[in-house]
Design brief:
CATH superfamily of the largest domain: ATP-grasp fold, B domain
CATH class of the largest domain: Alpha Beta
Number of strands: 22
Largest sheet: 8 strands, antiparallel
Shape: globular
Radius of gyration: 21 Å
CATH architecture of the largest domain: 2-Layer Sandwich
Number of domains: 3
CATH topology of the largest domain: D-amino Acid Aminotransferase, Chain A, domain 1
Strand order of the largest sheet: 13-12-9-10-11-14-21-19
Structural class: alpha+beta
């Protein structure tokens, strides 16, 4: 087991990793930007080093600064968390070149799976269903038009790099496709430095179901069942839950088996998530692999009782998984609500500022993962998420009731949050019936 780990991240996920390291007897080195200087959670680390200015590009994305902090801190490994450099294959390789373990998959697996077009080809090889689409990247709008005629409208243009909805456009006809193709390539180049796009058949109003996997370096791969992440706004997840509601048992097993096949064929190890869309007839299609821990990983932890951060670290050390697939049982129902410092009444406008007062919920089945507190100043420079309310109860109905009760208990003063919006969703009959798809929020503008 490692003696010291550097956490190449900030906020809630940095604190989450620190907590598990403490339980494992591992010392931690944190990094911070000038915007995060003096943050309370940094005191939980054994050491902390400033790596640059307030902007991500000047701090949390500065590979040379992070490596310097790792060398000064005399660490054996770096945990990237999620976001920032967590899926950067170059950073992964630099860590290993400096004799520092990267707590994640190999650079090769990360590079292959990080490219969505390559990942689609790998899915086909593993006999995992993919959405009908182009065989490779689309170079011109003429190529796009030709492929769209074969696929059938509407089509979805997708950037081969990155995520978060950037470089994605839907086109319902040839005229719309010409403009959408140019917009998607321009946005992809600006966001990811890679203008490559491909075409897929657009599946209307699908559900978003993903499978959490963990794999060791000895060829053992296990899934921790599925999560439903369909409650989204502009491709950003808002509420996640496990198990996915109204998913037939055979489909649930098939989608989890497909995720394991995908990972095994990719020679992948460590934690990862295989993401799918599911249509109204319960046909499922592979969309991408997230080669890192995800924001919503606590949902899987709650229903399985497995500490994913602990398993990430153990696997990185070369240890075998301590369980077999038959040992992993999904119990009860878990729901996670992402709480952002945003004002839903004004198109989810970010609301940075000082938290003048804060009260958080507790009680049976309630977990709150966050780094903020009374007196904390929410920075305008980073993602607006300030915490995650996770609940776990015996039934989905009880989990919804507990999530509503938990959200009602929160009391934030000084900033606006998305809690009122989350309450509206949880109280809606469509959510209660498990009838949410990825476009449901957009179709309900009164929310």
């Amino acid at each position: 087991m490692y003696n010291r780990i550097l956490i190449a991240n900030r906020g809630e996920i940095a604190l989450r990793i620190i907590r598990t390291c403490k339980e494992l007897g591992i010392e931690t080195v944190a990094i911070f930007s000038e915007a995060d200087r003096g943050a309370e959670y940094l005191r939980q680390a054994d050491e902390a080093y400033c790596v640059g200015g307030v902007k991500s590009a000047d701090s949390y994305l500065r590979i040379e600064q992070i490596i310097s902090a790792a060398e000064i801190g005399n660490v054996e490994a770096i945990h990237p968390g999620f976001g920032f450099l967590s899926e950067n294959a170059h950073f992964n390789e630099v860590c290993r070149d400096c004799n520092i373990d990267f707590i994640g998959p190999s650079p090769e697996a990360m590079l292959n799976l990080g490219d969505k077009n390559t990942a689609r080809e790998m899915a086909r090889a593993a006999k995992v269903p993919v959405v009908p689409g182009s065989d490779g990247l689309i170079e011109t709008d003429a190529d796009a038009i030709r492929e769209a005629k074969e696929i059938g409208y509407p089509v979805l243009i997708k950037a081969t790099a990155g995520g978060g909805g950037k470089g994605m456009r839907v086109a319902a006809n040839e005229l719309a496709l010409k403009g959408a193709f140019q917009q998607a390539t321009t946005e992809a180049q600006a966001a990811f430095g890679n203008a490559g796009v491909y075409l897929e058949k657009y599946v209307e109003n699908p559900r978003h179901v993903e499978v959490q996997i963990i794999a060791d370096k000895h060829g053992n791969v296990c899934h921790l069942w599925e999560r439903d992440c369909s409650t989204q706004r502009r491709h950003q997840k808002l509420i996640e839950e496990s198990p996915a509601p109204n998913l037939p048992k055979k489909v649930r097993q098939a989608i989890c088996d497909a995720a394991v096949r995908m990972v095994k064929n990719a020679n992948y190890y460590n934690a990862g998530t295989v993401e799918f869309i599911v249509d109204k007839d319960f046909n499922f299609y592979f969309i991408e692999v997230n080669a890192r821990i995800q924001v919503e990983h606590p949902v899987s932890e709650m229903v399985t009782g497995i500490d994913l951060i602990k398993e990430q670290i153990s696997v990185s050390c070369g240890e075998k998984l301590p369980f077999k697939q038959k040992d992993i049982v999904s119990t009860g129902s878990a729901i996670e609500c992402r709480i952002n410092a945003e004002d839903p009444e004004f198109d989810f406008r970010p609301c940075p500022g000082k938290i003048e007062h804060m009260f958080v919920p507790g009680g049976i089945g309630v977990r709150f993962d966050s780094h903020v507190h009374t007196g904390y100043t929410v920075s305008p420079y980073y993602d607006s998420m300030i915490g995650k309310l996770i609940v776990h109860r015996a039934t989905r109905e009880d989990a919804i009731d507990t999530a509503i009760r938990g959200l009602e208990e929160f009391n934030f003063k000084g900033i606006k949050t998305t809690i009122p919006f989350l309450l509206q969703v949880l109280r809606h009959k469509d959510f209660a019936e498990g009838a949410i798809d990825t476009k449901w929020v957009e179709r309900n503008p009164l929310l």
